[in-house]
Structures are given as structure tokens and as C-alpha cells.
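Audit log entry. Action: structure prediction of a protein-small molecule complex. Ligand: coenzyme A. The ligand was supplied as SMILES and no pocket hint was given, so placement is left entirely to the predictor. Protonation state taken as written. Sequence taken verbatim from the request; no trimming, no tag removal. Recorded inputs:
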Amino acid sequence: MCISVDLLDDNEAKLQIMRRAEPTFSETDASKHTPEYYDKICRNAYFIAATRDAEICGFCALYANDLKTKTAFITLIAVLPGAQKTGVGSELLKSAFEIARDKGMRRMCLEVEKQNTGAIAFYKRGGFTETAENGDTIYMGRDI
Ligand SMILES: CC(C)(COP(=O)(O)OP(=O)(O)OC[C@H]1O[C@@H](n2cnc3c(N)ncnc32)[C@H](O)[C@@H]1OP(=O)(O)O)[C@@H](O)C(=O)NCCC(=O)NCCS
């Protein structure tokens, strides 16, 4: 099995994989994924696509433009069900760190639902620690 990760430019391709991954998110998370939210990602985020056997099987969208705080933010990451737990998410994270560092960022942050214990375990494995919580949301971060 060969996994590769690359920045994607094509907005239609970004929308397609984000829509395909929609069922992997909880109802609460999915309700935040409005057309405006997707549009903002297409315009302003770095969008990394993971390809396995010539098919896109996951993605990570991150903002890395806050030169004041030098803090990047992962807004969305998902791996399609058939490809989960095979290291695709880890490759996406690694690539996100590289891109963020390349853009002058020193830290990476994200938000995750408290109930999403799988994702929390994944982020902890990726070096993130909890920095705060508010209601159902956990804030995590790590230096990069
Ligand atoms: C979270 C997600 C991106 C992880 O991607 P993945 O490709 O399955 O992760 P990997 O295979 O790279 O796993 C890396 C490590 O995280 C751990 N991990 C991943 N998913 C896990 C889960 N559900 N429960 C516990 N640990 C998990 C793995 O065990 C692995 O540890 P290891 O290296 O010791 O084996 C994926 O499960 C997903 O798309 N979830 C649905 C969407 C979502 O919730 N996104 C996050 C919203 S904030």
C-alpha cells in the first residue's frame, strides 16, 4: 500500500473529498460545515490530500497565516472509513506540521469535540496536549 500526501489546488476536488468525508463527522460537527465554511477553506486554507492506490482517501485543511502568533490551526481533518487506522491521518499531520513550519508557524492548535475520543487519542499520539475546554469542546495544541 502506498500513501502519498500533496497540496491540492483544485477547489472542485477539495469540495468533493470534503463532501465524501462528511459522514465520518458527528452530527454536531457536520452541522458546522456550511457552504460558507467550505468556501472559506477553499479560499484560505492549505489543503493536503492523502492518496492511496491512486484515490484520495483523506485530507487535512489548515490555516497557517497568523504571523503575529505564529500559530497554525487545523480546521478539518478526515480519513475515509476504509482507510482509517492505517497511518493516513499520521501522514496528513506530518505534512501539516511541515507546511506550517515552512510558513513560519511555531505552534499548531485545533478544537475537537469531547465525545470524539478516537480523534483525541489520535491527536495525543500526534503530540498534542489539551490546553483548555469549554462545554463540549476541547482545545489542543503542540509546538511544531
Ligand atoms: C481521527 C482520524 C483523522 C485519524 O486518522 P487515521 O488515519 O485513522 O489515523 P492513523 O491510522 O494515522 O492513527 C495514528 C495513531 O492514532 C491512533 N488512533 C487513530 N484513530 C483512533 C481511534 N479511533 N481510537 C484510538 N486511537 C486512534 C492510532 O491507534 C494510531 O496510533 P499507533 O501509531 O499507536 O497505531 C480518523 O479517525 C477520522 O477521519 N475520523 C473521523 C473524522 C474526525 O473525527 N476528524 C477529527 C475531527 S476534529
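Audit: result stored. Residues 24-25, 77-79, 84-90, 112, 116, 118-119, 121-122, 125 surround coenzyme A (CB under 6 Å). DSSP finds five helices and seven strands in the chain.
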